[in-house]
Amino acid sequence: MPFVNIKIARDGATPEQKAALIQGMTDVLVKVLNKSPNGTFVVIDEVDLENWGVGGLPLDEFRRRAAAKGS
Predict the structure, then answer these.
(1) Which domains, ranges and CATH numbers included, belong to the chain?
(2) pLDDT at residue 70, as a whole number
(3) Cα separation values, 35 from 1, 5, 19, 20, 43, Å
(4) What is the pTM of this model?
(5) Is the dihedral of CA 49, 62, 53, 2 positive or negative?
(6) Residues that are catalytic
(7) Which residues fall within 8 angstroms of residue 13, CB to CB, at 6 or more apart?
(8) Based on the number of CB atoms within 10 Å of its own CB, is 14 exposed (0-12), middle (13-18) or buried (19 or more)?
(9) Residues 23, 59 contacting (CB under 8 angstroms)
(10) Which residues 6+ apart lie within 8 Å of 68 measured at CB?
(11) C-alpha count within 13 angstroms, C-beta hemisphere, residue 68
(12) pLDDT digits (tens, 9 = 90+) for 43-67
C-alpha cells in the first residue's frame, strides 16, 4: 500500500494540476512497482511561501532574487 506525500508551495496550483500529479504518481507506482492503483495513496500538502526556505531565504525572496539574476 504505497503512500506518496508531495509538498508544493501554496501559490496557485490548480485542481487540474493537482489531479495530474495524483494520476502521474499513481501511474509510476503501477508501472515501476506493479502496485494496485486502488491501494496507492497520494497526498498533496501546500506549504505557505513564508514557511518554505531555499538557500537560507524564504521561498518568495529566493524566487525574486533568482528572477532578478535571470533578467
Answers:
(1) 3-70 (3.30.429.10)
(2) 83
(3) 8, 16, 19, 18, 17
(4) 0.82
(5) positive
(6) 2
(7) 44, 46
(8) exposed
(9) no
(10) none
(11) 6
(12) 999 999 899 999 999 999 999 999 9
